[in-house]
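User: quick one, fold this
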Amino acid sequence: MQKKRNPATARPSKSREHFHAAGPRCVKLRLSDTDSESFRRKCERESLSLTNDPHETEVLDWIAKVSDSDFS
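Assistant:
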């Protein structure tokens, strides 16, 4: 005997079945809250830690060299 599905869970399950049949794989990501004060402080600390870092200068020079600046 098959268990009756709760209507609240039937729709997401049907959606997952549709995407699974179509081929793409569902991936869930957890991202930081970029609006939070703690996130802003962490970014600032990490950015300041790179001040005068020779490797950072090298990487930024490489990015400028290989980036596509022609937006036409």
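User: anything notable?
Assistant: Residues 35-66 form one domain.
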